[in-house]
Specification:
Blueprint (H helix, E strand, L loop, with lengths): L2 H22 L1 E3 L2 E2 L19 E6 L9 H10 L21 E7 L6 E7 L7 H5 L5 E3 L5 E3 L9 H5 L6 E2 L18 E2 L5 H5 L6 H8 L5 E5 L6 H8 L15 E4 L2
Parallel strand pairs: 3-11
Antiparallel strand pairs: 1-2, 3-10, 4-5, 6-7, 8-9
Length: about 260
């Protein structure tokens, strides 16, 4: 066999074996890498007729309240409230799908407390810079990471203006089947895609906020004029964080 033919055959063998390996990789017993990226059944693809979005009313968002963060942790298994907290990573290295931040108006000195997470941009910088296509945007506007092909380059982390993505530095156990997490990959808020695909129409952060009685988060279809979200957005002035970037975010804020 010539050297070129031998090289071609070796390359084919490598790719074939790699594909077989990836198909069987597990992050923890029973948890497959493809869980999040392919949450919907194959015969029910995400539709562009829907644009999932969220409105956060900062007038109702209580300072010092972390119910939305805790709710997300419990639902998706990351952070202190999750069963697969990163024990070996430093505090600055641990995953953070959603966090509470405070914005101060320097002109009026007023302070607004609000949750910050992946903004699920229509024109997502993370998708644009990803060299493998692992950062992806579904037809319904939800931005996800395909763990099969994420190589951990972290370009998406640098590109995100909201600092919404985290890199996993260690092997994790005891994960949620609907939220597989893998060492060496990047992750962020999934907009509770498993709940939306199951027809629940809400997210863990919104549920937790409602349970606390604040009701500061509305989730819904931005394209449906009859949805509570669309009506709220049309009736009240809302803001996109870093609207100057022209990303058309799925997450909007009121009161800032």
């Amino acid at each position: 066999m010539s050297e070129s033919k031998h090289t071609d055959q070796s390359r084919r063998d490598f790719l074939s074996n790699g594909a077989k390996l990836a198909a069987g990789v597990t992050l923890a017993p029973g948890v497959m890498l493809y869980g999040v990226a392919h949450a919907r059944p194959a015969d029910q693809p995400a539709s562009s007729s829907v644009r999932w979005g969220m409105l956060v009313d900062t007038n109702k968002c209580a300072k010092g309240c972390n119910a939305c963060v805790t709710g997300c942790q419990t639902e998706n298994g990351w952070g202190a409230a999750g069963s697969s907290d990163e024990q070996l990573s430093s505090d600055n290295q641990k995953a953070q799908w959603i966090r509470k931040v405070e914005l101060r108006n320097t002109a009026t000195d007023s302070v607004h407390s609000l949750p910050m997470m992946c903004q699920h941009c229509e024109t997502a910088p993370c998708v644009d810079v990803c060299p493998t296509g692992a950062s992806m945007k579904r037809a319904d506007g939800i931005v996800l990471v395909d763990k099969h092909i994420c190589i951990g380059c972290r370009y998406c982390m640098m590109a995100c203006p909201y600092k919404a993505r985290s890199f996993i530095h260690e092997a994790l156990e005891d994960q949620r089947a609907h939220a597989p997490r893998g060492k060496g990959t990047v992750e962020s808020c999934t907009f509770c895609v498993h709940k939306l695909d199951a027809g629940e129409g809400t997210t863990a952060c919104a549920e937790a906020c409602n349970t606390e009685g604040h009701k500061a988060i509305i989730v819904g279809d931005l394209k449906d004029p009859n949805s509570e979200l669309s009506q709220a957005v049309s009736q009240h002035a809302t803001t996109q964080v870093r609207a100057d970037l022209g990303l058309n975010t799925g997450v909007r804020y009121r009161g800032i």
